[in-house]
Structure formats: structure tokens, C-alpha cells
Amino acid sequence: MFKTRNILIFMIFIFSFFLSLNSQIRILGEISGVVVEEGGEGLPGVSIKVTGEALQRSFLALVTENDGRFFIPNLQPGIYTLEFTLSGFTTVIQKEVRVYAGRST
How far apart are CA 102 and CA 9, in angstroms? Predict the structure, then answer.
């Protein structure tokens, strides 16, 4: 009887521990891509402004790499808007970019 009770208490403790770990794990998504000009060359230095209701702040700002690539990790699943600006080029706004948990958009 005493052993059974101890085993049961131990199992409840282990189950509670894993439940608490699971509640702390957040599955996030990301957005990545390349900004290119009409000829297909990557554009460095393009400013990207990210907005969306799922953000913890009003917006995120970043700049493309030398080859035009960009990467936005650790985003909550949701719908975002990306605004791309570079002096001498038309500003492009990409609306309704959907981010899914555990995936790259």
C-alpha cells in the first residue's frame, strides 16, 4: 500500500512537471525573403517595417543584408504587414503576411 501511494505521488509530480513545461513552450514562426530589383539582383539596405496585432510592440524595423536577404525570427503566429522602403525606389507594402507556428513564411 505504501509503495503504491509513493508511486502514484511520484507519477502525479512528473505529470505536473511536464504540464508546466508544456505551458511555457511557445511555438513561434518567422518571415524570411529576398528583396530584389526588376532585374533580379538583391537590394541591400532596404528598410523593412513590420507591423501586426501579434507583435509585443508597435512595430519592428530591420534592413536587408548585402544580397537583399532578410530574416525576422521569433514572431507570434498571426497576420503582419511589411513595408519596404529604399530611397529612389517605390515603397512596397505587403499586406496579410500570415505567420504560422513552427514555420517560415
Answer: 35
Dihedral sign for Cα atoms in the order 5, 8, 13, 16:
negative
pTM: 0.72
**5-14, 53-62, 79-88: least confident range:** 5-14
Give the cell for residue 3: 509503495
